[in-house]
Model the fold of this input.
Amino acid sequence: MAIAGIALPVLALAFSGCASTGGEAQVDSTYGAASAEDAVRRFLDAAQQQEYSRMRELFGTRDGPAERKWGVQDVEQRMIVLSGMLLHESYSLRPLELGYIGENQRSFVARIAGTRYGTVTLPITTIQAKSGRWFVEQLGVDSLTGGGDS
Done:
């Protein structure tokens, strides 16, 4: 739990600035994913494999990859922290329909088993960038330390 207390302020910076700032609309197909669900699955799989650069390529905003706003090194450091929090044995994913989510956003709930916190439920929001590619935009990491069931 002490590590999570340190990590959350670092992650808060990653997720607090996810507003549009007018970046480039064209994104290489190595960034993002073709669908919202694919972005989440590939992100969680990359976290499990500790593939930080792949996680970084799947994390972004409406303007595209987050690294364009915060820089490769900064975003990759945040992915290292996230990967440690998201190491798991297995997960299941279901879409979450919310009335306030825009048409270019999709929300999911991942039930992740075998994390350092036990079994947790993690809300995840994706966004479709101007390029048409999907990115993981927000992760409800506060739920990881909130006491999932073991």
In short: Confidence is low (pLDDT under 50) at residues 1-26. The domain at 2-15+30-144 is CATH 3.10.450.100 (Nuclear Transport Factor 2; Chain: A,). The helical segments are 2-16, 36-48, 52-57, 67-70, 72-86. The beta strands are 60-61, 64-65, 90-96, 105-115, 118-128, 134-139.
